[in-house]
Amino acid sequence: MTEWFEQWFGEEYHDLYPHRDDEDARRAVALIRSVVTWRDGDRILDLACGPGRHAAELARWGGRVVGFDLSRAMLRRARERSRVDLVRGDMRALPFRAGSFALAVNLFTSFGYFLDDDEHRRVVQQVVAALSPGGSFVLDYLNAEHVRRTLRLRITEQAQGRDVLVTRRIDSADRFVIKEIELRDEGRRFQERVRLDDAAELAALLLNAGLGVVARFGDYDGAPAGPTAPRVILVAARA
């Protein structure tokens, strides 16, 4: 069965999210740089790199970046943006040698897509294996508490000339936030489904994979983590 993320992250995604810009990426990478140091030429994995906003910025700071993503459309955009290395694949089966990277990042809630929690654990375990000793992993995720409190259930948008209806809900088990996207003038529908893991669950996921959390933030400007913050940004290190 085709999974939702195999269908959704095409050109339509860019039309609906034009506000996700280079300035946003600069803020995120500046925050990472304030906590994690890397030398020119150190290898950095941008896991689920999307259109390459963060990969380009990480490269500007001297990293030898590998952008990894499943979407061909995303990788085409990333190729236009930057000269970083790009690899297409599924994050559940990373093709990298052990100890390959000084830093791995997974940014803007590019995680939590799977129904089976074992698959999320497998992803993190593979990331840890790909890190060199002392390497770091940055996980940037939605704040589940904030989402539950502020979720707008139904909005109609105009995006790049498209008539779009967006409906959001939380599933009956209170474990996933689900977004239904209907391109009404085209008769097409897409779905996003992301796990509502809270900060403690995310930290435990990293800890159980052999990482120690060394810093926590609530937004890209470095605000403290907490229930009212929009993000959960965890910086973890491998022993």
What secondary-structure arrangement, pairings included, does this model have?
Blueprint: H1 4-8, H2 11-16, H3 22-35, E1 43-47, H4 53-60, E2 64-69, H5 72-81, E3 85-88, E4 101-106, H6 117-130, E5 131-142, H7 144-150, E6 154-159, E7 162-170, E8 176-183, E9 188-195, H8 199-208, E10 211-217, E11 231-238
Parallel strand pairs: 1-2, 1-4, 2-3, 4-5
Antiparallel strand pairs: 5-11, 6-7, 7-8, 8-9, 10-11
Chain-averaged pLDDT: 89
Quaternary structure classification: single chain
Structural shape: globular
In helices, the fraction of residues equals 25-40%
Radius of gyration, CA atoms, in whole angstroms: 17 Å
CATH class of the largest domain: Alpha Beta
The figure for the number of domains is 2
CATH level-four homologous superfamily name of the largest domain: Vaccinia Virus protein VP39
Order of helices and strands: HHHEHEHEEHEHEEEEHEE
Largest sheet: 7 strands, mixed
Number of helices: 8
Within the largest sheet, what's the order of strands?
3-2-1-4-5-11-10
Q: Remind me, CATH topology of the largest domain?
A: Rossmann fold
Give your account of this protein's structure:
With 239 residues, the chain is an alpha/beta fold. It folds into two domains: 4-142 and 197-238, Rossmann fold (3-Layer(aba) Sandwich); 146-192. It contains eight helices and eleven strands. The strands form two sheets. It has a seven-stranded mixed beta sheet with strand order 3-2-1-4-5-11-10, with helices on both faces. A four-stranded antiparallel beta sheet has the order 6-7-8-9. Helix 3 (22-35) packs across helix 4 (53-60). The longest helix is centred in the first third of the chain and has 14 residues, at 22-35. The radius of gyration is 17 Å and the shape is globular. The chain starts with a helix and ends with a strand.
